[in-house]
Each structure stands twice: as structure tokens, then as C-alpha cells.
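Justification of resources, computational component.

The compute hours requested in this renewal are based largely on the per-chain cost of generating structure records like the one below. Each record pairs the submitted sequence with a full C-alpha cell output. That output is archived, and it is also reused by downstream analysis tasks.
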Amino acid sequence: LLLFLLGAIITFGLSAITLLPQLEWTPSTTRSLLLENPDIYPKWTSAWEFLQYIFLPWSGGITSLWGIDTEKWLSLGLLPSAIALFGFWHLKKAQKIFLLITTFIITLISLNNSSPLRSFLQSQDWLALIRVATRAWFIPTFAVIFLTGLGIEHLFKRKRINKKLIILLAVLAAGELLAISWFRITKPIPTLTKSAPLEIYEFLSNDKDQFRVFCVDRCIPQQKAAEENLELVDGYSTLQQKNYYKHMWQLSGAYWNIYTLSLPPIGTYTFEKAQPDAESLGLYSTKYVISPYELTDTDFKAEKTFNNYTIYRNNLYKSRAYFRAPDAPQAPILIYTPNHIRVDTSSKPSTQLILSEVYSSGWKAYLNGVDPMKIQETPNSLRQIDLKSDTEFVDFYYEPESFKAGIVITGLTLILLVTFSVIKAQKTLA
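The structure output for this chain reads:
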């Protein structure tokens, strides 16, 4: 137990540099929406289905194995579980009690809607926030792996049992897990039903400006966008910032009020023909909109049609950074990285600068790289700052307060680990 606690402390120390900023950012995300309409997965048809997927996932054949939801993938295997039970028998009494209680609690939670405690569990905010009741199932999985090894070890100590039989048993157990895993990972990848033709990527690649693209039915996969160096308005992520989530209603021309991984949600573009807003998209530096149906906003100009998709140019497109003025003159981007953006403001047509990036409290701005200036959130959730008369450029850095604490904690952890390793090595050599 002490080693486990020590491992947890070291893990926290090494991950603090990224974990603490994530925790600081979480309140501004859509995760809290899970409390408004709790929807906990997986949904079991019965306790038997739960047990079947643990011990006999292959009983329905390969097709059935492929059809098991990710949240329901709990397979331990029948033979490994039987050997693990033998290994469990040889644990100390205290270890048995601890493991039984832990497994029992995790099982009750993982059963979700089939659990005898379902009414209590589904009223718990913490379970609604983690959303998937089987997240802790890795603990029983690791327990079975180690107990299987322990069981085989104790079988070898039994002189009356043929050693070849034990080896055969171990091979069969490993073979069962290997077969289950192999057939699972060979599951055919679903064919994309909505996918932009290659000609669209070729068209977009000819424009060397820095802009965003919006496909109304999410026809550009995020992986393909990354490969083609495209920036999207839409996307898929377990968390989004609430301010962008809400403004996406206006950007996409659709409305929803549920927690969703996809923006816009799959249902909106599957069953509706939403009409996006050119002005709002323009302020978000969206130069092109792609649609399989006609867009009615007069500020969208049809450029090219490839297969069923038409590329529309947004006449209200604005550059990534611009001054707040009637004609919104461009402010050139000098540096653009995930954690640092530098904008040239030397032309000074206005005393206010707008950066077409979603406002987030973790970002800081420095006039001429040294003078701190508060970043304001515009009504459409972009970043705006006031400029002084001598401002030649503005630096934007991602510097959440918790990041500094994370640097200290992770740094000290590394120093302690290195020091301990050196001292131990010196003692070993001595």
C-alpha cells in the first residue's frame, strides 16, 4: 500500500505541469452540462450481458465481438480468470479482503443501469461527470493479470501436477486473450459516409492565406485536416469551452442544449439543413464554407462544386488578427504557435486589436513583449486588447496561473528522483 501511495505521489509530481492547468481550465468547459442531463454509459441489457462480455466475449462469434461497444469492452477471458481465482486463493487474508471489497465496489458501479444500486448511483454527480461507469475496470483487469501469473507460479510448486500440463494451461490462457484481442483490433474500420472529395483539398491548398474552413456536415475528418494543414470551425472532442459551444449555435445555424462530443452534433446535420451565418463565421476568420446543399446567405459566393459538395467563399471573411475599425484592417501575424502568438501592430489604425481566437482565461497579453495588458472577451467570445500609442507588437502567451505551480512541482519531483537515483547508484558501486 505504501508503494502504491508513493507511486501515486510521484505520478502526480511528474504530471503536475500539465494536470494542474487542465484542472484550472475544467470549470470553463462543457463538462458541467453532464449534470443537467445525466446520461451514464454503458447501458446494459442485463447483468448476464455484463458477465458474458467479461468471461465469454467470443461466445457470439467474431461479428458479435466486433459489435461490442468500447464502454462495454471488459474482457478478462474465461481460462485466465479461472487461473487467477487459484492465485487469489494463495493471497494473504488482508489482501483477499482488500481485493474483494475493491472488485465488489467497481462491479456495482460498472453494472450501471443493471446494478442493484442503480437509483443511488445515477443520482451521483461524480458518476455523471465521469460519464462512463466502467472507467475503473482497468483495476480488475490488472488484478487478473497478476493473479494469473501468481496462480501459474503456485501450480508449478505442486509436485503432483504434470509440468507440461501447467505449461499447456498457461499457453491456452495466453492464447485466449491473444485471440480475443486480435479479433477485436481487426474490426473493420467503418467507411466514412460523409467525406469531402480530394479536389476540395487541392482547391484549399492553393490558398496560402491563414484561414478556417467549415463543412456543414463535418465532411473533413480532423486527421485529414491535420495532414492538409487546415483549421476547422467544427470538430470532435470530449471537452469544449462553454463560450465557444454556445457561440457555435450562431456559427453553424443550428441549436442544441445537450452535452455533445461533436460540434455541431451529429443529429443537427443528419436531420437538418442548417444555414450558417456568414458574418459570424467571417469574424472567426472562416474563409470557406463547404456544403452538400445550397446556402442561402447572400454573402456566401459559390466557387466550385466537386461531386455533391460546393465550396462557398465568405465575402465577410476577416484575417486572423485585425484592428477594431470600420474596414477592419489586418494586423499581420509574426509568430503563430500553440502557446505563443505575436501580432504586428505597428500600423496603428486603431487603439483596439482583435485576435480571432477563442477567449480563454489562461492566455496573457504583453504589449511590445513586456507590458502586461488585460485580454477582454468580445460578445462573440474572441480576444480583444487595448493598445498604447507606442505598441509595435503584441505577444499572446498561454500562461495559466497553475502552470507556474506545476513547473515547480514537476521540477522538484525530477530533482528528487535524479538525486535518489544517483545516491542509490553510488551505494551500489561502493
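The chain has 16 helices and 16 strands. The chain has a mean pLDDT of 93.
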